[in-house]
Write a structure and sequence with these properties.
Blueprint: H1 3-16, H2 29-38, H3 44-57, H4 61-76, H5 82-100, H6 108-112, H7 119-130, H8 139-148, H9 156-166, H10 172-185
Helix pairs in contact: 2-7, 3-4, 4-5, 8-10
Length: 213
């Protein structure tokens, strides 16, 4: 795919959704961090269902830490891997309090030093909470970039690095959201909705779903 095709893809995605946003519910960088940590291998809907009551009682690192692992688990046990996630969140809260005055750091290295926070989670927090033009590559974005030819790569990091090279600067701030939403609702894993896709004519996928299929 050439530069003109990539730019046109993002022009169309922007025209359809000028101000894309995460589907996770949050009211602060801390709540966003917790929600993203919980969202690994879970749906945003299931996370939102759990975090509503959780954030009502523990909206800060200090109050989350006061819950303890057992208290946190009671709120998130409906989410997959809740034992590991609870342990990581409580440990992260302790680090935020002792090393960052309870605030979420605007620094990749500091974020990735938190238990359970990898590059993808750090990218999401940096992008959404702090407006950094990072691009987090999850399973949806990985699929879209490889299937369409937009930014193919063998690993999420390879796709991320290529996206950062080829996405025009004016689109980088929202590229993550446009691509994840496209993968979640249109370029789906089992049967992409090619007849309804607004970039189908630019996509290089050879096995497009035919109309009526």
């Amino acid at each position: 795919m050439n530069a003109a095709g990539r730019a046109e893809i993002f022009r169309r995605l922007r025209a359809a959704n000028p101000q894309p946003a995460t589907e996770l519910h949050y009211a602060s960088p801390f709540e966003l961090l917790v929600a993203v940590m919980l969202s690994a291998q879970a749906t945003d809907a299931s996370v939102n269902k759990a975090t509503g009551p959780l954030f009502a009682v523990a909206p800060t690192a200090a109050r989350m830490l006061a819950l303890g692992e057992a208290g946190l688990k009671r709120h998130i046990r409906s989410i997959g891997l809740f034992n590991t996630k609870a342990a990581n969140i409580i440990r992260s809260c302790g680090i935020l309090i002792t090393q960052h005055d309870g605030a979420v750091p605007r620094d990749r290295a500091a974020l990735e030093a938190l238990p359970g926070v990898g590059r993808k989670t750090a990218n999401v927090v940096l992008n959404i909470a702090f407006g950094e033009p990072t691009i987090a590559v999850d399973t949806h974005i990985f699929r879209v970039c490889n299937r369409t030819g937009l930014a193919p790569g063998p690993t999420p990091r390879a796709v991320e690095d290529r996206l950062l090279r080829v996405v025009p600067a004016g689109f980088r701030q929202h590229a993550h959201h446009w691509l994840i939403l496209h993968g979640r609702y249109t370029c789906t894993a089992r049967r992409p909705r090619c007849p309804q896709c607004l970039i189908a004519d630019l996509c290089e996928y050879p096995d497009k779903t035919p109309p009526g299929a």
